[in-house]
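Dear support,

We are seeing what looks like truncated structure output for some complexes. This example has two components. We would appreciate it if you could run it in full and send us the complete token output so we can diff it against ours.
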Amino acid sequence: MRGLSRQYGDVRAVDDLTFDVPAGEVTGFLGPNGAGKSTTMRIVMGLDRPTAGTALIGGQRYVDLPEPLHHVGALLDAGAMHPGRTGRGHLRIGARTNGIPLRRVEEVIEQVGLGQAARRRIKGYSLGMRQRLGIAAALLGDPKALLFDEPVNGLDLDGVRWIRSLLRGFADEGRTVLVSSHLMSEMQLIADRIVVIGRGRLIAEAPVDEILRGLGGQRVRIRTPRIEDLQRALADRAAVERTAPGELEITGLGATEIGDLAHALGLPVHHLAEIEQSLEHAYLALTGESVDYHGRTPSYLNGAGR
Amino acid sequence: MSTPIVLARTGSAEWSRLWSVRSTWIFAAATAVVVLGFGTIMGYDVSGDPTGPGPDATAWDGGRFTAMFALFGVLAMAVVTSTADHGTGGIVPTLQWTPRRGVLLAARTGVIVATMTLLGVVLVAGASVVVWAFRPSLGLPFGAGVEALAELAFVYAAGALLAVGLGLATRSTAAALVSVIALVLVLPMLLAQLPYEWSVGLSARMPGSGALFLIFGEGPRDDMTTASARLTLGLWAVTSLVAGGLRLMRTDADR
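Here is the complete output from our reference environment:
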């Protein structure tokens, strides 16, 4: 994506967004509600038109791809299907448009575990079954890239584990995977790299490990009874914060360097560890100022009414 | 991938899309029941009439009286099928599978218009056969039949185009149905009843008046001709399709 923007009246849903989704990795696409994730994905798929910029898949716009289902499989909105059609009928239509043999329809029905439900009308499907049907449609053309918007919505644990292995398998085969989710624990498990956007703008783009370490600001926690001596020694080398009696958190130096320094100064060290954040904490730190829609905690839950 | 191949595949998919939902079968069956039912009533009526409908009358003329019912069935089916994708959100997978919107427009319009035209013509022909069965002396002359059915085919094709265009332009089944009924039935009748020359003139330029003239040979003004009726109906159909096509081609794929 290069300089992608989309304006809806006064609202800039996507604002000069530029990032790459490399092959062979699972790229997680994160952002608060209204950040522009779904709009970005819709623009990539040619459903919405960008106000500026381009989104290319293998160097081509989606609309220019011959037999697009062989290039990209996308799940954007699991509810976006005719409820009066059977699951199998829905998939057969998709297969016909791209010259895919109808036996492939039966293969993907089995692959996603729809089985006998494929003969039923979609209006009788649960959200999870619709999700599986949407994934089946995305897999029809055995595509080189997958683009999933909230794929685990409505799936049971078995389905979530299946999605996890599916995405991992695709990436391991050298294919491209872009997946958005609000489930940070899930994203931490499946994503190799993360793209975070807020208010339509790129906030961060980095491998998951780097995001967890704080985007280049690796944090280390150390405990020593001679806290003043260590703080003085570190003051001109890194950002130091006293977080508890006898405890410092240091940003900008690794645990090895800090340990060596303490050893050189003859300081006893009772605890030394790199602080690994959860993706949820890292995400909240990154998007804190970009959240447009905040919920309010009822007073009876925070004790104000007691 | 060449455009003809993509168009053929998309046309095949549109055909499946049309017939893989129950509403299409229900509309077709309901239209058939109404048209053939009125054919039966017409046939029963002429069979019991000792003087007969006239020396030049054929069974095709009896069938022609059912043509308006077939037209409303055709219009309703075309509206429902052309708006279904937007009403259900199905436009999202549709445009993922066929991102070339011009191809989708051509395939969708072609399949709906061809199917609706064929359905209308076959049902009216069936109604004519029913009338003939009640009174074989009326006859079913081949030449008169081709002429009558060809004119009806034009009416149904133009009507289906009008409905598809309005469906694509409004993206709403309710709005498109109201628009079609207003243009084909309500406005032509209403304007023709007003005591003004301009309103009668305007009524003659409505698509419903064009269709009515081509079916029954009568219109709100005496100076209407077959050519003017065809031109009126054709222009409305093309204009509507252009409006719907532009909406499909140039705007986001919203519900």
